[in-house]
Amino acid sequence: MAVLGERACWATRPLLPVVRTWELDARRWVRALRRSPVKVVFPSGQVVERKPGPGKQPRKAAAEASPREQRLKQSRQVPPSQTPSTWEESGLRYDKAFPGDKRLSSVMTVVKSRQFREKQGKILLEGRRLIADALKAGAVPKVFFFSRLEYIKELPIEKLKGVSLIKVKFEDIKDWSDLVTPQGIMGIFAKPDHVKMTYPETQLLHTLPILLICDNLRDPGNLGTILRSAAGAGCSKVLLTKGCVDAWEPKVLRAGMGAHFQVPIINNLDWEAVPNYLPNDTRVYVADNCGLYTQAQAQMSNKASDYGWVCDRRPLKFHKYEEEEENLESAANKGWLPELEVQTYDSDWTEAPAAVVIGGETSGVSLESLQLAESTGGGRLLIPIVPGVDSLNSAMAASILLFEGRRQLRVRAEHLSRDGSYH
């Protein structure tokens, strides 16, 4: 009974929490680790006081600091906002094309069509240098296809925001590339507007009062070379009339070597709109591609060949008038052909702002170009060649005339700077 009474007594006692000594020790050690000792006492009795680290102050001092000082301290601790300078800091992301992905093929199928370029207002640029020139000039990218991430990291980060970045296999780019040696990157850009473009300052400083008009040029290689010569000579503007190959065709871009982003280009113009792009008092000159034969004929007769329409007894066709030599001669006798003065290319023709018309090799210049030259007081520029040799390549003729115009302007500027007047 005594045992049962003792058990009942224990049952009525309140239960107290049991605290283990090792838990107390563990908590004490953790709390000690969090603290920074103010003094360290060595067994020898030496006492070393620890000073607060740089930028730290005692809690009491921090509490006593004024609100203004606390705000200043917080402003110093917040790092200044900086523009992301690396790919990782910018937070850019890219997609990886897996087998069966049709995004590259679907875009390439349509972007190489002139109809698509004109309707959608998009162009294809290929190669790192050409893409870099386009971005520098202010062209707006839409999509980049690349085979290595390093090619994208080479481009300005601020130009890549909002652009779709798609990593594809190099073999896929090679299948759609027009280059002999593909560079592993293709870009789809909005069709550049010459008004919104930012051309190099050096190009603007060396711009001359010479304008180039391309008339019925259909060869992409020739047009690209002409644009390159126009940029090199400091041409102020290039106008392309209807009937010319598209300036933004991949072959023209490849031959232009970046000239599209160094000189303003106005594409697909009607002849009625051409005068709107000419400076005041501009004289239009038509390049003569018939050589010495034309000059001799002009001195002896009054036939159609006098006006450069017939070269080596072969009629030059026009994109509106495809008539035989007899019809042209009868028309010339009736007096409806423009009468233009013929002068050699090295005679002075840059006294006033000048525009040079370059015609295609197969079709020649158009009737509208001759009429525009007549109405502006211009003429025909003859490039003498050896008799019996066919006409010059249109790109070569354009280069000769543009750089000759540059030479004349430089000579005139030297005379003005030396004598104060031109003689």
Briefly say what this structure is:
This protein is α/β, with parallel strands linked by helices and 423 residues long.
Structure description:
The protein is of the alpha/beta class. The protein has two domains: 91-190, 2-Layer Sandwich (60s Ribosomal Protein L30, Chain: A); 201-417, SPOUT methyltransferase, trefoil knot domain (Alpha/beta knot), CATH 3.40.1280. Helix content is 39%, strand content 16%. The chain contains 17 helices and 16 strands. It has a seven-stranded parallel sheet with strand order 10-9-8-15-11-16-14, sandwiched between helices. A five-stranded mixed sheet has the order 3-6-5-7-4, with helices on both faces. Helix 12 links the parallel strand 8 and strand 9 (237-241). The longest helix has 26 residues, at 394-419. The termini are far apart. The model is unreliable at 75-84, 291-296 and 298-334 (pLDDT under 50).
Key traits:
elongated; 17 helices; 60s Ribosomal Protein L30, Chain: A; single chain; 2 domains; Alpha/beta knot; 423 residues; 5-stranded mixed sheet; 7-stranded parallel sheet; alpha/beta; 39% helix; 16 strands
Low-confidence stretches: 75-84, 291-296, 298-334
CATH class of the largest domain: Alpha Beta
**Overall 3D geometry?**
elongated
Number of helices: 17
**CATH T-level fold name of the largest domain:** Alpha/beta knot
CATH superfamily of the largest domain: SPOUT methyltransferase, trefoil knot domain
Organism: Delphinapterus leucas
InterPro entries: Alpha/beta_knot_MTases (IPR029028), MRM3-like_sub_bind (IPR053888), Ribosomal_eL30-like_sf (IPR029064), rRNA_Methyltransferase (IPR051259), SpoU_MeTrfase (IPR001537), SpoU_subst-bd (IPR013123), tRNA_m1G_MTases_N (IPR029026)
Keywords: Methyltransferase, rRNA processing, Transferase
Domain RNA 2-O ribose methyltransferase substrate binding: 124-195
